[in-house]
User: Fold these one by one.
Assistant:
Number 1:
Amino acid sequence: MLRDLLLKWPLVRQIVEGADGTGAESMSERTRNLRARNKGAQVARSVCPYCAVGCGQLVFHKDGQLLSIEGDPASPISRGRLCPKGSASFELATHANRLKKVRYRRPRSKQWEEIGLEKAMDMVADRVWQSRERTFVEERDGKSLMQTTAIAHLGGATLDNEENYLIKKLFTGGLGMVCVSNQARI
Amino acid sequence: MSVTAFLTDSTLCIGCKACEVACKEWNQVPADGFDFRALSYDNTGSLGHSTWRHVKFVENGAVPGFGGNASEVFSWGFSSDVCKHCANAGCLEACPTGAIVRTEFGGVYIQPDVCNGCGYCVVCCPFGVVERRPEDGRAFKCTFCYDRQKEGLEPACATACPTESIKFGEIEHLRDTARERVRDLEEKGFDDVNLYDPTDTSVGGIHAFFIVRGDPKTYNLPPKPEVPTTYLKKGWMSAGIAAAAMVAGAFLAFTGSSDR
Amino acid sequence: MGSSMAENHPVGFQWVVEARERGTKVLHVDPRFSRTSAMADMWVPLRAGSDIVFLGALIHYVLENEKDFREYVVNYTNASILVRDDFRDTEDLDGLFSGWNEDAKMYKTDSWAYKGSPLKDVTNSGKTGGHAKDRGGEKLQENIYEQDLTLQNPRCIYQVLKRHFARYTPELVERTCGVPQDVFLKLARTFCSASGPDKTAAICYAVGWTQHSDGVQIIRAASILQLLLGNIGRPGGGILALRGHASIQGSTDIPTLYDILPGYMPMPLFAEDADNLAAYFNHHKTKTGWWNNFDKYFVSLMKAYYGDAAAKENDFGFTFLPRVTGDHSHQGYWIQMADGNVEGLFVMGQNPAVGGPHSRMERKAMAKLKWLVVRDMVEVETASFWLDSPEVGRGELNPEEIDTEVFLFPAAGHTEKGGCFTNTQRLNQFHEKAVDPPGDARSETWFIYHLGRRLKERARKDQRPRNAGLNALTWDYSTEGANAEPVVEEVLQEINGRTLKDGKLVAGFRDLKADGSTSCGCWIYSGIFPKPDENVARKREPRDFYGHGWGFAWPADRRILYNRASARPDGRPWSERKKLIWWDENKKEWTGFDVPDFTVNKSPDYRPPENAEGDDALGGDKPFIMNAEGLSRLYVPSGLKDGPLPTHYEPLESPIRNPVYPAQQVDPGANRLERPDNQYANSPDERFPYVATTYRLTEHHTAGGMSRYLSHLCELQPEFFCEISPELAKQVGVEHRGWVTIVTARGIVEARAMVTSRMPPIHLNGQTVHQVGLPYHWGYKGLVKGDSANDLLALSEEPNVRIMESKALLCNVFPGRRERGPRALKQLENAMRQPTRRRMVAQ
């Protein structure tokens, strides 16, 4: 026991092992126990969210926390590689400026305020309903129009197919919104 | 455990800086300041406490009709610099606290929990790689992703590099790869290609080789890097010789006088 | 051309580098020597906006020297088809094709038809452009035509092409693009040698081609070139659109766009499609070719949207869908917004305050909204236009007078939700959820589902006709977890489609029916989820070079479209080296390395019986099955708004008059949307002597929402800069790293100067044209801030797809920073008023 303790002392170890003090004998406990931090973590097979090349990503996580994101070597598209943006995905997901609460700006206000998610959803549903009521046209010249041009949507190229599907289905198929556009137009 | 190395082939580098970012993300290195240095497309300047991979951009003038892969015109070069993990490492030899160690992979690793920030290593690096972080004074540089290597993983920079400009592997195998690549390029008509792998200096060989077009000096790669402690040894040696000569002289003076 | 692939798609570019190392020649044509040029064998700078001259000259080179892949051209393109006798080329009419109506500012396209093709009995106002399969309606029965397989008839398309491109000579290239003739010829020889049975070449492009007032025609020119060289449908060939966002392809396939429905079916047009499903089908369904299945796909979509409420008796809910009445595109509705005609706007994962065309105007227009909902991971500029936009600083907007209510919702990122992206190669890849989103951040799936739930609840109590669609909408997705997140696989299954009787998932779009017995949310994606436990987009077991086993490439997991063209007409591969799919005579089926883009048992010698319809009407040697005649189109008889062939027109703002057709300066169909808040420079214009062009950098992402908050990216490119030549820097009086102010007829920005020989002046016929390069990533939020280059753009529309012109405009450059506050507006006014005094600087 005393011997073990003594051997932890680099100087003693160096004398005992005859080393020059620049190798393992000088390693601290932390260094000796150093391991890749994603060892033993869960892995989600993912895809880079930036450009459209579609590089495979491995998202390492443990206990609900992200640990790291790196390229998926099995991907026939990217062979495990990532560009600087793809390499920065971990910071994208975890940086301090991520929004976590709904912010609301009242008419003529000069500041944001925070509001609850459910309340915000109710308010947005109200706004949509009222605008639609005011502007919806069922017919023109006796022909079906079923349209509002007063509510518009923008965005989709950063979203999933399922999300785009639901947006188009609800906004156009359900609400009659025709002003729908995304990054593909620009 | 085999000794490992980097081979950075700038003729394959697209200057994307994925290596810089992948390194920082994995090693959780902070950003280095938002300065518009505009050294061509480079704004991080050089290797330092918070930049362990650094891509240098060298503009030599673009000529219509010639791309960067034309052997006749070398227009815009990129090369990713990194710690050389010298066989005789100045930083390691200078470190008085045992904070810097040689790993089983041949890399040179600064133990952040041991480093006390004395800074001796900083001045002893022949490549200007090691630097102290102003916040706490400790010295930082490329860890050769020691944590990843222990798991059999490649360093983060080599893993990310889109075009295999950064290769990682067993050192002698990589040396062969490097020589072969230079031969290939020469056959393709590139007569300005150089392999940077100084072996005949006091650093005693490095663990990060580079293939560049033109003079390696352009990429902060000194022609003859020397370990400052070599001079220290020489200094002690000459001091010793001088001291011995003085002793001998004094002795001779006395004995001589008795001879008279 | 039109792309800097190494910079904007670095990981995709690994394949280019690998090919280069194996001997492929990489040619980069771009105004700027970029990181792509640095990896290329040749870099050829040209004047921004002169692409069609350059490509036209390559076409001319091929035709003049008979470098075309003749067997491919004769059999697989429409080269041999004759055009109508009354068709007139731009060569005959000073830059216009036959059919131009000056009052309506549009073409009547009847004379462009194939000789002998009957016109369909449909009206077509031609007013809406679009992404749809037929851009507003089929005009002809293109399977009926006259042809001359010897290509000698002067009215055959091969000869029409020859005449049309006769003046696109190396000399014209030198004079118009600023490319010396010898440099052009060297490139032409290299590129055109990659043709024939044993060789192919690919062309990669991006928004450097699309964002022009004649962007569609630039890509058409590339198509003609590649078809002449036999480089479509073959390994190593193609024209590859390198798209900029993870799922910009997906958001076009399953569109959040106004003019199409999922799978490139057109939205019904008010004037033409009326409220009658039969008229709509008559308009868009073809008699021959794959689009004969149009009704199956449409009815299946209606069943996916509206379930049982879509029945034969009510035209499958056709009137639940709104009608398109005009230009509801981004550009179109933003003009409406500026005029106060839009009440509410949703913005999800996009940042028009920085990335929109004429972003200054777009920010000001948002102040006219009653309400705005922004969903993003950070507080993007769009959400806070009322708080800290330049317009607030300049006194153009006063927060105390802006009535807009703004809701900024935190959005989940890609690691916090499951779902699939469709990447640039049409590859669907599912990304798995790893962790929960932080705080109140949620996916768009969550947001839309729960918003829809609320609205449907209201509609349920209100059965007026206007709510018929909303009430009919199927919306019963299961939810899971503490956040009640909809099960995303259920949505993907709805997209895949089912047979309704037994609820079973269909195996692919061949199973879909027009009688209402199947549902399918997007026919081209059908097969992505063929069994309850088989999400093909989630598969991660690649088994071959083409990546089969990894994800799902629509349609039907084909990796190369039109791959029937990779074999000879008789079904044998063109060569051993370039074989992809071929006819197996023993098994009597198509086989090979890819999923055949062809009916698998249709033999090469199949000839259709008279009056055959659909796919059966196409012979076994007709690879281009989406076209009614089964051939690829060197010449487009219908569907384009600005001509059947690409023609060089100058950008809406140009430093020169059109050297090809002096009488026709710009694309006749392009829409300038000109008004006091969207003005243009003259062409040329002493006030704005330089050409400006925008682009992206590797280190940032588009409008910055995903990069300007990331320290590890910001440090790499911290400031907005412009790239100018040493010659221009001297003329302006600025040094490298100094400040300059850049002004157009729309806006004013300041940037740091990057003085470099990589942005050389262009010499045309004795005139020197300086070009200014502008990366557009910055804005007024984030860790690094800067002016937005897009403030300089005009809101304009290309005629076919309504995209703006951002790659070639006119600007002026002054030394020093711009003025602060309202004085900046004064500075802009002055720049617009005064002609630039000529500087007495020796060049």
Number 2:
Amino acid sequence: MIAFLIKRLFHALLVMFVISVIAFAIQDNLGDPIQQMVGQSVPESERETLREELGLNDPFAVQYLRFAAKAVQFDFGYSYVFNEPTTEVILRHLPATLELVAASTFLIIALSIPIGVYSAIKPRAWLSRVFMGVSIIGISIPVFLTAIVLIQLFAIGVSWSPFPADTGWGAWLNGLLTTDGGMPAYGRGDPVPVIGTWETNFASLEGLTYLVLPAISLASIMLPLFIRLIRAEMLEVLQSDYVKFARAKGISPRRIYFLHALKNTMLPVITVGGVQIGTLVAYTILTETVFQWPGMGLMFLDAIERSDIPLIVTYLMIVGLIFVITNTLVDLIYGLVNPTVKLTGKPA
Amino acid sequence: MTTTTSAIESSPTASRWERLRDSYLLYSFKRDPIAQVSLAVFIVLVAAAVLAPWLAPMNPYDLAQIDILASELPPFWIDGSDPAYLMGTDAQGRDLLSTILYGARVSLIIGFGAVAMQAALGVCFGLLAGYLGGRVDAFLMRLADIQLSFSTLMVAIVVGALFKAIFGGATYSAYAVPLLVLIIGLAEWPQYARTVRASVLAEKGKEYVDAARVMGLSSRRIMFRHILPNTLSPIFVISTVQVANAIISEAALSFLGLGMPETQPSLGSLIKSGFDYLQSGSWWITLIPGLVLVILVLVINLLGDWLRDVLNPRLYKG
Amino acid sequence: MSLLEVNNLDVRFALRRGDVQALRDVCFRLDRGERLGIVGESGAGKSVAAFSLLNLIAKPGYIAGGSIRFDGQELIGLGDRALRRIRGHRISMIFQDPMMTLNPVLTIGEQMVECLRAHRRISTRDARAISLRKLEQVQIPSPEARLDQYPHELSGGMRQRVIIAIALLLDPDIIIADEPTTALDVTIQAEIMALLLELCEEHNVGLVLITHDLGVVSQVTQRMLVMYAGRVIEQGPTREIINDPQHPYTQGLINALPQMATPGSRLNQIPGSMPSLNNLSSGCAFHPRCGFVTRPDDSTRQACVDQEPGFVTSGNCQAACHMVAEMIERERLPAEEQDS
């Protein structure tokens, strides 16, 4: 177990090193702290001495080490725009993004497993065909478009009356096509404060309504992929000899599907899916933009527009850290679930 | 099973056309209405996009043709529409149909260009990693891992933001098409590299590669002339999916303001420009280009699904 | 009445281009404690026959007709629940590849206990005790520890022993073993086969042994059937068939055994290969490869090309062959002439 952990940790550190070099290179080439510290009027000679004093003329490696030493303590300097430590800006926006990702992850897991398993067990049933059809359409719709359509339908509202309204069935069909709107679609509303800058949308019903549309649209990216993945893996497992053998032993179908097959299905799903859940953080940039959700993604896009280099660099580092942590956790869970992986590090 | 029998049945002298006619590919295509409809729709969309300068009622790039007074007109089936503008107009008074045709053109150019770029990068790196192994393999695959764990979208956004910061907004807009091809190519090469590497590793163990090596052929020749042809079917299958992905990526970048400028819109930037008018009720500026984008991507994905079922290559999972 | 009676079994695979008949007119029976061998090339339908007995053929395969009577009960058309009570309980199976047969994420113990508890109302503790005893019977070292191990911690031979133990868990009447030693190292094949044979004899369990190894069949089984292209073409007591095969195909199979070849010369082989099931020739499926279609006097035996041969009985054996039928006819005719 310890050897496994150390190996994973080493891998994680390596990844963080690569990310930090990239982040530093961005900062080094694009950010000019002198420009930010002093105005345009300061003569070039004075800038040069300042540059020398700040060590900006030192070799790349030396400057990187200085950057890395601070980065380890989560010190990435000040945001140009907010004029406060970048980590504090990020910390303020982090909970909103994490809550959005958590809500989407919940939706994805809660829906994809039953749907994927069902369409693998009954591949020819009409409901399975509907699921597969909807999922390929889902894959083909960009997130921001899903978000826009959701806003149009449930926030703005749609009223269609293509059917004769004076007949009973016409009115009923029109009613089906009409949505009231009124769902909150912009921002977080009034989230409940927890500790410090951490506020939550999970604590109140009203907060949850603000979360619904953004979470659905964020989940819509991964849900079809998960359904297809689980279905494909499950179909393969159901063909396997050990499932046939379990049937030959006279085990009930329920136990075969939900113990024998599902456990084996979930192994690859954990590895592939775990990484995908991590990448949801990237997609929050799109959903947060559409819903004006005050999270890290929206903040990042804002930082790009205003060329707030320190904030961009910090965001990259933090997101990199999130990815590394999720990937390590996924590996760990996989190792715990899969008996053929030896966590002890001893040769099997 | 069927592919092998048909391969045996067709004589080595059979022309390419005869081989295609007898192939399982065509056989299954004839039996799959979804694939047929998808291909038809795809061809129509591509043709419409390619022929946009001749088909479109007006040229959206020509400022002289734009009537700002005719802005935000609805499509023909809604009251208040102008018969001159079949699909209505956008906020700047451009004919939406024309803008969509030109936009689809831009989206398709970037989609195919970006896939060519990723394929070139990914195939080279994948061949190198798989054939040479050792440190080269470890380095390239670790890089691919890192990129994929960051998600291709994130990489594209960061690279796009960097390019914009380096070149400045105006230059970026001017060279948006080649830059986007480069950005999406850089972001998505790992998919190809992994697929190619996996099939190279599978092929490498086979005897014909040993034979080629014993005959004293150079590594490069073995890689490109002997191994690459045998990895083509998985490359072919992921290429379809990747075109769809590239079009979506371009749309996403454009939506975030890192893609095509509004003066030369792609489907993505059209959706973005319409988004601001959604609240004022002009839903068509966003949703009609959106629908075209979805249909385009959907038919490509459906064709990709069909190809994967037919060719059934062992794709790299994860 | 035999314990197991299979009559006119007809199994098909529903493919898009139409049904393909995988088994045609398969008949055999098995008495209590009897050992029956089914031999044939790969693709002859041996495994399909084995799996269809418990209706375990994978889709798109289905049983199109015939009858499978087990202990007086008709199995075809029996509901899944009722069939499940027979599977693993009264008829159990042993698969070909022990590396693939055990579920990799469940312990040996779990996979044994679940089988017992699926058929008997017993506690997990009792089920473990029975499992332990069975593991002892198949001579697995330190059986107690094995119960909590995962399959990947065991070698192929050990896993096949575990699978045999599972097959014996509920003291079944019949074990169907589908090439139980093919995937194993040559060195332990004999060991596992001997173990299986010994346990079957000890517990008076009937054995249906599916194999392409005539040597094993001749050593282990009392009766055998030879299958070709989805049909049984010869059946009877093993010793009689091995010593005096009637059907040209069986003769070819026996001649192809390495021990039948003269040292230093080439091995004997049957020319050609078995046709695929969707591309069967007319008449006798074997006729394109058969050396006896042309009679010694150079005339063609037209029936072989036109007509599917029925079974003719010769001694204790039955063979489906026009040539054999002709020979028997010729032997019988002079005898009848003498009588009259």
Number 3:
Amino acid sequence: MAFVALGPQAPVASQKPTKTGRVALYLLLPGLFYLGLFFLTPLFSLILTSLKAPSATGVIGRYDVALEIGNYGYALGQYAPQIFRSFSFALIATVIALAISYPIAYFIGVTARNRPLLKGMLLTLVIAPFFISMLLRTFAWKQIFSNDSWLLNTLKDIGLMGADSYIIGTDFAVIFGLVYNFIPFMTLPIYASLDRLDLRLVEAGHDLYANSFTTFRKITFPLSMPGVISGTLLTFIPISGDYVVASRDFLGSTDTAMIGNVVEANFLRIQDYPTASALSVLLMAAIVILVSAYVRRSGTEDLL
Amino acid sequence: MKRELPQDPMLRDLVQMARNHQISRRAALAGVGGTAAALTLASCAPADEGQVAATDVSDSEKVLIWHNWPAYMDEDDDGNYPTLERFQAESGISVDYRIEIDDNDTWYAKVKDQLELGADIGADVACPTGWMASRLQNLGYLQTYDNDNMPNKVANIAPSYLGSAEDPDRIYSIPWQAGFAGIGYNKQAYKDATGKDAPGSMADLWAAELKGRVGLLSEMRDTVGLVLLSQGIDITSSSSLSEDAFMAALDAIKEQIDAGQIYNVRGNSYLDDLTTGNIIASTAWSGDITVINYEAGTDDDPEPFGFIFPDSGATLWADVFVTPNGATHKRNVEELINFYYDPANAAELALWVNYITPVVGAQDAAAEVDEELAENQLIFPNADTLSRSKAFRSLTGQEEQRFASAWQNLLLGA
Amino acid sequence: MSADFVARGQDLELESIRKEFPGFVAVDDLDLKIPAGEFFALLGPSGCGKTTTLRMIAGLETPSAGRILIGGNDVTDQKPHQRPVNTVFQNYALFPHMSVEENVAFGLKQRKVDNPQQQAQAALEMVELQHLAARRPQQLSGGQQQRVALARALVNRPALLLLDEPLGALDLKLRRQMQIELKAIQMEVGLTFLHVTHDQEEAMDMADTVAVMNHGHIEQMGAPEALYDRPKTAFVAKFLGQSNIFVGEVAEADDAKLAINFKGNRLAAPAARVEKTKGKVAIGVRPEKTSFHPEKPASDPAVNTLGPGTITDIRFTGVSNQYQIEIPEVGEITVFAQNIGKSPVVELGAEVWVSWKVEHSFGLADLPTGEEEVAE
């Protein structure tokens, strides 16, 4: 979806198709075919399903083609808090992930630039979590945060946590899990941007009377914006739809359900496909709108 | 015997969790990829009327595929299934045993489109819970078994399973294992928190001392059923268990959730919450408590966890063999069922899985192996025990939809 | 901001500046003084330490030892943004995410100068780019980018302007043009320019004073003409233009001149133009100071003569011809002859004698590589 949102930034070929233009078109065909088959068809099916009405037969999970716009009203009305929570969590987790990832990416891409061994090791460390299934890693956190874990016992012993308080199932636990799982998606694009950063520009900033902070604010950070944009999109979008971390079986509780959990429950538990589809369409639309506004506002066309 | 777990508690719990979640994870992933496919299929599925059973080829193909729940088959140290291997050796039928069911609803979501088409769901036999089986039966998705091919079943099935209005002779669905849902609790922690030895009623779960340390099963019929029973509702009766009564029970649960009494509402993973100390007590399945005692017990304290029936009664459920219309090896399945209705085989299985066997005579057979286990009321309940448990009545399609929807919304906090 | 910004440039003084990197010494106890308002060139091959020196002055590298003074103030411990110094970087280092005008106004804004836009416009007018103020740097040609970089540095009126091979990326014609403009601007604004380059023509063309740097130290420093006329080391003699160099034992030395015995030939240089009077001495002469003759010239104490030899190569370079003459036992000599019709017409393989006036000879302080003095 990010790519759809980025579409307007891409140069549009306006010339008449020349011979090379036609070859390019042919080369594009498999891609268009793929897009049509695996994106547009399911999207059409999703929208179709979101408008269905329960079957007159009353069979659970059976729906007839209809134009039931009310499904959207129901989805919005019934699940407004979960929708709001999804985007709030996604926003908070993205900001935290950015705050954590940027210094890491900076250290790897700039500070360690001329130390290939250190750089390789740090990059491996960033990527290492991918070697283990995200579900197992989230389980591990569930374990670490469980009430009788050494962490909670320690926190309780030193008085940082009340004896009755807990972590699992709280907003904190879910946001923590989201940040943790998506940090590599934030770090790697920012690293890629900073690794390409021409350090002579930073020197030029210093030379032109800018102190370290100003140089960072006016030069380093703006020049790393493509990475920051990709990183925030790669983090925000999947987090908005995440249904693992916030689920009751992982770090969540009945108080932390996000849209993904609602879609999952409607789809798999109660076979309410129209509501699940309407929610998916709403989620997709909201993300497309948010992301295009964001990309436009951040004005990174020149850098992309 | 269950495979040895690592000694390190952290590792052990992780492995345990991974085992419990093996399937939910697969189901979760299938849910993503399956979404688009299910949508496409859903739109072109024909009506179910007039489904016919597929032609049986059991005579020529000595095979069958079996979908079942995790930890539901006796297993030796090498991960083999002794009773199942014996069946294969004796019958010459090779069985592909797959752990494919973790949750009735998600399993149904996976197979409903094939069921609707009368197509092969990829299994000749599966063991969903009774209420799901009646849904399938009512939709006309199931083949009927031939009692003539299952003399052991006819001879040994516990009489309590017979005589229902839907399936009096048990030819659509045949019990595999049954169990109770009651209250499971951590004995020491419960005593520390409340000063009492054991909970006695559902009301004890709502005690202020247990605030934030109570778990609930996400299985609607068990958790809501227990609450309904505690509210004096007869869950077997459609007049007593009305929609109003159901919604009132949900309100009672919601009140506890909103008050912070409930730590979490979970499926199989409620066991992690019990063993890691996240919760002190929970609505629980009987066999699970036996299993975690087996794993967590020490010489000093062989049974750190307890299981009780609330004074208002426990719920009773049964997982049943069903063969959908699209399956082509029903005859082989009947042979399999017949095998497991042999008391000796049933006893061997029951002693491992710790659930209630529907096979009369299994208790006697078990007593020859393990006297103590044969007296365990959770595995071989006597009439008195059974009388204190009730099965959730069957729901109409519309009731099912409304109840399940309300329950899921409660769990989503919506 | 501790730096003072002045109407005119200030002097720069390096006291025993040293920079060590792991494994080698980049700048080796360098002393240097550049008077205020001078156009000073630091010339040397790559790796000689000239860029490191410039970066230390800019504050982008920290010296291992020594002091840096600008206008008498010790700036050694100041951060780059605190120094009254601006740099025109080798690849311009223009900020790609800012317009040309924003680039030029950057330093002014940091110093909270009034009307930075106006001043930036004025600076762009000076380099005749005011019409491109709104463009992004990557939309400009190389020469235009170079001028933006210059405007961005000059607009701050630094006490010292550092130019790090600023013309290296330009083609020859544009380079010549920019050299002229740069020199004109320097004279107009009266700032102190320190120009680092490996292009000897560029250095000699623009600079008031040229310092030739090699292996982390300055070999020789002076006005371009003086350096060319009287190189004091073999390195300078060869790096700054071409030289014919002959090494031999001192044969006679008196107040007027020094003569060496070069493989049986007596080669002399005026005493005032030699650096060394004992042992093995290298005597050199510029190729354009030499001439050749089809017959052996008459012996003359005021003229050094070598030959006979054979012309092995003739190259026409426009204003002059370049001849390679191979003399047996002596080696190869290069002779430039201007194309003004005075040189004898010769062909490849012709037998010639080479001669030059003793007064054009220069004696070096060291010996060319490979001719090191053998300990006696």
